[in-house]
Amino acid sequence: MPEPHRSLDSNPAVKAEPRGPGTGGAADPLAREVKLLGALLGQVVAEQGGLEMLERVERLRRGMIALRRGPDPAARSEVDDLLGSLDVDRSEELGRAFALYFQLVNLAEEKARVRELRRHERSAPEGILDESIGAAVREFIAAGASSEDVTRIFGQLSVEPVLTAHPTEARRRTVLVALRRVYGLLDRLDDPRLTPREDGELRRRLREAITLLWQTSELRASPPSPLDEVRTAMVFFDSTLFTLVPRLYRAADAAMDAFEPGAVRSHPERASDSGRTGTRPPLVPAFLRWGSWIGGDRDGNPTVTASVTREVLHIQADHVLRGYEQVAERLHRTTAIAARRAPIASALEAWLAGAADRAPELAVDLERRLPGEPYRQAFRFIEDRLRHTRLRLAGFPQRAGSSTAAGSRGYASPTELMGDLRLIQDALVAGAAERVAWGDVQDLVWQVETFGFHLAGLEVRQHAAVHRAALEAVRGAGDLEASLVPGGPSASEVLATFRSIGAIRGDYGPEACRRYVVSFTTSATDVLDVLELARLADPSGQLAAGLDVVPLFETLDTLLQAGAILADLLGHVDYRAHLARRGVQQEVMLGYSDSNKESGFLAAAWALYRAQEQLVAVAAASDVELTLFHGRGGAIGRGGGPANRAILAQAPGSIPGRFKWTEQGETVAANYGNPDLALRHLEQVTSAVLGASTAPHDDRIGEAAARWGATMDELAELARNAYRDLVWDEPSFAGYFAAATPIAELSSLNLGSRPAARGVAEGTGSSAGPAVPSASWDIASLRAIPWVFAWSQSRASLPGWYGLGSALEGFGRRHGDAGLRALVEMYREWPFFATTLDNAETVLAKADMEVARRYASLAGTVPGADRFWAAIAAEHERSVEQLLSVTGRRSLLEGAPTIRRSVDLRNPYVDALSELQVRQLERLRALPADDLERERLMRLVQLTVSGVAAGLQSTG
């Protein structure tokens, strides 16, 4: 490596930083911030690697931009000469520079989204953004709804995101935290009040933070354990989710002020005011609930054991109770209402006396320090009880002296804590401090109502085959310690899992763990097996009685049979009795990923819609309250895309005020890393749920589905046939996939704790892919996440669009001009069809066939490789042409200029990493298995994988 240059201010090779009062004053603040971050990164690269390193980065950048503009032999020669002359170490530095650039650009784009969001809110009529809760309430009012009507709708509302640890987050937790630090510094640069000294100090700290990122390993040294994945999720709880919850409820509560006569409309200058919210009891209940599969999802993951599942709740309780403690400590410091200024309710006086009896030494101290300040004393007592509760529930009773001491001074349940807070609220109202009662104290009430002492309801998931095998072992008095399936648990472990559920419910309450998801449900028996195992684990029957068993339908066959399977289940007398004890409520999960991998994205989307129709009809006929759980992935190839649009496109009757969905992998960081964007995301989801739960909406959607359902049947069949002809009916296509994508090399990325392929034993592979493609490895056993991830890395992104062109073209051939007119009308009038095509358009725009051709060249020795590539390239061209003919647009993303701009600006830089990756794959695969150079090349490939994922903002 060249000697680093430590003094760069006067060197013309280093780009100058944009200067000025902050970074927000330019006509295009995003461009200014990207330029600033690029300049700062350039300085760091030059400091760490020397000017020669920086010059290589610039040469590659200019060359890829030139090649993006069109064929350029000189630029191609320049790129080839540059990359061909570099050894592994210098190639790694080059890859690191581009990968880090994308991480920084992502922060700038995130900041631009927040800036644009705030601009829209400032200019929105009456301060109400479209797709917000306020907009939904305004639409109810326009439709003639009364405040009682809307209150009833909110009373039925349930919004439940479920965090999963599916391994689609390529970044380490250390890197995630460091990037949030950079974002905070960048955000502060936007303050126009900064002095030159403050501006300079922020830039110095930015350089320091970028230097730390440069020297931090981007890659995990070993796979994360399930508990590591839990701790990563807690980063978002601590930084965003905990404080986000009351903001969401406050927005919903403020929206109800629109029913106050003359509110806002008479005083438009007060549109941004919160009206009466905060001066009265809230008008909406807590409707948000968080779920989690992290540490509970054991389907194909042998590292998730009964003891791990128990430990998850310790971690979650530790974080949520620390959050409550901090709020109570803040209220203890701020609620300094003097008894002589406001009379104290007798109930509060009695409560303080009881608290003093429970903690006499604390009472003496408080009376000495805070005489005549009852509310400060009250919140200090609550803080103390919360600390003892945390020590008990987080598994540290010894820190409180003993388990008995921790239990006696702690809270027995969230209900007990809620009782204390309600009592304090009543006392504050009686003392003319309504704003305090319904302000900060109410925020804490909302948090406790939402998170309880468990933070998120932990859901257990296991494969139906494991349950069948466990029951056979128990009934046949077999070896309970032997693995039931390859790499899977023993019957003893299965029973231990059920006992851990019972223990969790006993410690944290029934909401802490009450749902059990059955993967690959094919019959009613698969659900009944779970209840039988629960009774075997707990003969008292209490555990089984407290379980909500959730069948998961995820293959095309089971999606088509979903209604019949549910009807059979609900026809079992004993199961109906079980439901009756649980409020006659049934949850059913729909899997988006495996159905897509099996049948292609268009056929899978329609099968999921048809399954919803069936399930809604069966539940209505059986008088059962149905909740559909949508197993949406992060990538569009796994059901991703804008959640609010997806909600409005669901089958009629499928969202009766309730929506539950998975937030997977990198979508957790994307949706909840920034508090403002997280609030907007949840507002959009809530608004869509409200809008999709009305009879007029269901009528419109139902009419569209009835009118065009047969057309979609035909399109889905055409798309599925085209997809399966390539992916499943060609015997050597699995070999082509393995060669033309980095699926095998992804195996050592250590993205997550779960193996990539079902049936892969622990230690032979990781979340991204199996260790080595072999005779035991095929597309069928590969999980959907690495399937999508690998295609994304090769820039083909096949799972998100393949089959669309053939379907649209084939339909046009059959029906002529009338067929095209029907498709155009469908796109204009039917949200389901429009959303499906718009999602495909985004993937088609991000795919790049020229780069994908380079990856396809890696498969030159695979039989039929040229034919496979020709089919993929032709289908892409066909899909673009046909999609544009239906949408009426001249080019992809013409109607989404912000996304189009982002894609265009990123492409040359992603191209650089893709070029580097392909070259290293060629070198790596040519080396003997025992060559010492393999490890270094593998690390370089991994680095480019992480960089491409950051550049495309997508993994699996």
If you compute it from the alpha carbons, what radius of gyration comes out, rounded to the nearest whole angstrom? 29 Å
Largest sheet geometry: 9 strands, parallel
Q: What's the arrangement of strands in the largest beta sheet?
A: 3-2-1-9-8-7-6-5-4
CATH topology of the domain at 458-665: TIM Barrel
Task: Tell me roughly what share of residues is in helical segments.
Answer: 55-70%
Helix vs. strand class:
mainly alpha
Label the CATH architecture of the domain at 458-665.
Answer: Alpha-Beta Barrel
The whole-number mean of residue pLDDT values reads 87
Please tell me what the overall shape is: globular
Question: pLDDT below 50 for ≥5 consecutive residues: which ranges?
Answer: 1-13, 21-25, 262-273, 400-406, 760-776
Through-space gap between termini: 35 Å
Q: Please count the beta strands (DSSP E, at least 2 residues each).
A: 9
- Please write the CATH class name of the domain at 458-665: Alpha Beta
Tell me the fraction of residues in β-strands, as a range.
under 5%
3D architecture notes:
By secondary structure, this protein is mostly helical. Among the domains are: 29-224, no CATH class; 458-665, TIM Barrel, CATH 3.20.20; 713-895, no CATH class. The protein is 62% helix and 5% strand. A nine-stranded parallel β-sheet has the order 3-2-1-9-8-7-6-5-4. The longest helix has 36 residues, at 88-123. It is globular, with a radius of gyration of 29 Å. 50% of the residues are buried. The model is unreliable at 1-13, 21-25, 262-273, 400-406 and 760-776 (pLDDT under 50).
